[in-house]
Amino acid sequence: MTPDLIYGLTGIAVFAIGLVGALCAQDRLRRVLALKLCSVGAGFILVVAAWREPPASPDPVPHALVITGIVVMVSATAVALALIRRLQTLEAEADE
Amino acid sequence: MTDPLILFDLLLGVSVVALAVAVMGARDLFAAIVLFVIFGLLSALAWARLSAPDVALAEAAIGTGVTGALLLKTLHHLRYVTGQLDQFAAPGMTPAEPVPMGVIAANAAFCGLITLGLAVAYLGAPQGGPGFDALVAEAMPQSGVEHPVTAVLLNFRAYDTLMEVVVLLAAVIAVWQIERGLSDAPSPDLGQVWQGFARLALPAIVVVGTYLLWKGSEAPGGAFQGGAVLAAVGLLLLLSRAYVPRPAHRGAARLLFVLGTGAFAAVALLVTGGGRVAFQYPPDQAKTLILLIEGLVTISIAVTLAALFHGREPVALPSRRDHHDT
Amino acid sequence: MNNLMSLDPMTLALFLPLFGAMAAFIAPRAASVIGLATVLANLGAVGWLAFEIRAAAELITPLGGWAPPLGIALRADGLSVAMLALTGAVGLLVSFSALDALRDARQRQYFWPLWLLLLTGLNGVYLGTDIFNLYVMIEVIALAAVGLTVLSGTREAVRAGLEYMYASILGALLFLMGVGFVYLQLGRLDFAGLIAATPSAALSAALALMVVGLLLKTALFPLHFWLPAAHANATAPASALLSGLVVKAALYIFLRLSTYMPLPDEILVTLLGALGAGALLWGSVQALRAERLKLLVAWSTVAQIGLIFIAFARAGQVGLVESWKAAALLILAHGIAKSAMFLAAGRIKDEVGHDIIRDLDRSAIRPTLAQFTFALAAISLIGLPPSLGFIGKWSLMEGALQAGYWHWVVATMVGTLLSVAYFSRVFAGFLRFDRMQGALAEHKGWALADLAPLTLALAAISLGLMAAPILSFIELGYPFGAMP
Questions:
Q1: How many structural domains comprise chain A?
Q2: pLDDT of residue C111 exceeding 70
Q3: pLDDT tens, C127-170?
Q4: Is the domain of B290 the same as that of B168?
Q5: Chain A: nearest CA to B230, how far in angstroms?
Q6: In the listed set B69, B91, B113, which residue is the last one of a domain according to the structure?
Q7: Residues of B with CB below 8 A from C106's CB?
Q8: A51 lies within 8 A of chain C by CB
Q9: Are B241 and B291 in contact (CB under 8 A)?
C-alpha cells in the first residue's frame, strides 16, 4: 500500500460524496458545500497523479493546475453565494 | 513495508472521507460549515504529505479559509433576512419540497455511473505514470525562477494563470452586479477582545503574506497564497469595521481589481516582437518581470477576495424597494 | 509600437476583448462606446485570421515560446475560425441591439464588461489546444454567462441563474476530474497527446467524465433542466448570447474531443444520438406547451441541441469523418437564427408589453418588423430551403440514409414537424386580427432596434446559398485529421 493509492481512493470517495450532495441536497448552501467537496476530490486526483516515490520530487505541473483550480473554485463559490443571498432577499420581500 | 507513516495516511484518508460525509449529513448548517473547514484543513495536510506544500498552502488559505469565511458570511445574511439571527441552530434555509421518486432514481443512477467511471479510470491507470518531470527540469534554467511550481504558473503555463485571474475578475464583476447597496445585515459582533486582537494581528499577517509572495520564486508560496493571507487583513478590517466601503471608493476598487490582470496581460503583450510571441519573456528580464507580475497580481487577489467577502457593490440606494423592480 | 506589429491575429482575438472588458469596467460611463469598439476590433482580428487561414490552412502559436506539452499553444483552423466568426458577427449585432434594449443604466454598465469577458472566454475555447486550459476557459464563460443571466435582476432570473451556476460548476468539475485522469494516464494535456494516445478502458472513462460535464454545460437532454428558465428569464440581448453562442462552446469542445479521442464503442455514438432524439422530442413537446414566447424559444434551443447530436451520430462511428460537418453546419445555423429569434422575441415583448403567446393576437400593437424577423428565423430553425438550417438538416439526412440509419431520418422528420407545430402557435398570434377589439395602435418605431435581429435572420436564410464555400472553409486544416 502506498500513499498515492490511499489518497487517490480518498479523492474518489470525496468526489462521489460531493456529487450525491450536489444532486440530492435540498438546501442551497449545502449544494455549494457539495460542489466544493467535488473540487477537493478532483484536487486529490491531480496531487496524487503528481506524486512520485521519494526521494524523487513530484511533478510541479499538476500542482500549478490544482492551485489554479482552487482560485477558480473560490470565484465560482463567491458568485453562487451572492446569488443565494440575493435570492433570499428577493423571496423575503415577496413574502412580506 | 511497515512504514508507520502509512498508518497515518490511512487514518488521515479515512478522516477526510468521514468528514465529507459529516459535512453533507450535519443537520445544522453552521456545524456543516465548521466541519467543512476542518475537512479542508485535513485535505491540505494530506496534500502536504504528498509533497505538495504549495497546493496545501493554497487550499488552506483560499479553498478553506476564504471559502469558509464566505460561507459563514452568507449564513449570517440568510439568518438575518429570515429573522432567525437569534437562533443558534440553523436547519435548512430553503423550504424543502418532496422530490419525486423518478428524480431520486435518476440521480442515483447518474451518481453510480459517474463513480463507476471514476473507479475504472483510477484503477486502470498506470502506476507512477509519465509526467512533465523531465520537460520541466530541462526548461527550469530558462524560466527565471528557482521554484518549479512558480515557473509553471508564471512562465510555462502563464496563459492559464492569466485566465485564472480573469475568472477572479469575472467573479467580482458578477458579484457587484448581483448585489448592491450598503451592508444592511449587521455584521457579527466581534467583541472588544477580538477587535483588539484583530488590530494587533494585522501587521503580522501583512508580514506573513508579503513573505509568502517573496518566497514564491524559490520556495513554496507565491502570489495566490500571499494574496489570500493579505485578503485576511481585508476581512479583519471589514469585520472589525475599521474599514467601511463607501460609494466614493468604487473607482479605486475597480482599478485595484483589474490591476493584476491588466499588468499581467500588458506584460504578456509587450514582450512580443523580435520573433518572440506573447508571454515569451526575454531570458535576462524573466525574473524581474515575473516578480513584477506576482506583486501586482497579489495586490489584486487580496483586494478582490476581500471584495468577494464584502459581497456587494457599495452604492447608496435612495430607497431599497424602488430598485428591485427594474 | 513596433513590438505590437508582430502580433498575430489569434493573440489579438484573445487580448482585445480582455482589455476591452477591463476598460469597460473601469469606465462605466463609456462602457457602451468601449464595448462597441472592442467588438468591432475583435471582428477585424477574426477577419484577418480568416484571411491567413485561407492561405495557410492552420496557424499555431506556442504561447511563451514553450511548445506543448509543456506550454500551451493557440491553434486555428477552418472550424475554429468559423466558430470565431460566428461569435464575432453575432456578438456585434447583439451588441448593437443591446444599445437600445438595455434601458436601465445599471444593466448597461454591467452588460459590457460581462459580455466582453464572455467573448474572451469563447475566443479562448475556439483557439485552445490544451484540455486544462479549456477548463479554465469554460469557467470564464460560466461566470460571465451567469452574470448576464441575472442582469434583469428579477426573482425568476436570479433563481434560474443560481440553478445555471450549480449546473455549470458541476459540469466544469466533472470535466476537471476527467482532465485529472487524462494526466494520470498520459502525463500530458494537449490535443496532440490525445491523438497519439493508445485507447484503453481507463482513458475512455476519463473521456466519458469530460463528455458528461460538457453535456451538462451544453444542456443535452436529460441534463437540460437548467436551460429553459435561464434563457427565458434573461434580458433579450443576454438570452441571444446565451442561446446563440454560449452553449456552442461546450458543443465545440465535445466535437473536438470525441474525434481526437474516439468514443470506444459504436453503442455510445448511438446513445448520444438517442439522447439527441429525446431532446428533440421533449424540447418540442415543451415548446408546444409553453405559455410564454421566450420560454417557447428557450425550449426550442433544447430541441435544436438534440438535433445537433443526431447530426453527430447520424452515420455511427465510422461516419464521424463526415458527420462533424453536418453538426458544425447546424451549430452555425442555430447560432445565427436563435440569436435573431431571441432578439425579435425581446422586441415583441418590449412593444406589446408581455410575451404571453395566447394573448399576442389581442394586442393593439403590431410590431410588424419584429414579427417578420421572428418568422424568418423560424424558417431557418424549421429548416426550409434555402436557409442554412435546411442545408444542415439535408446533410444530416443524406448522411444517415447513405449509412442506412433511417431511424435518425425519422427522428429528424418528426422533430421538423413538431417545430412547424410550435412555431405555428406564434404565427397564429401574429396573423389573426379578429380577436382584436378596436383599432390597431401605432407601434413605437423600430428603425435601429429591429435592424440587428433582421440582419441576423436574413443571414440565417441567405447563408444557405453559400453552404458550399462554408463547408470547404471549415475543412481547412483538417480539423479532425492528424495534428502536427
A1: 1
A2: yes
A3: 999 999 999 999 999 999 999 999 998 999 999 999 999 999 99
A4: yes
A5: 15
A6: B91
A7: 180, 326
A8: no
A9: no
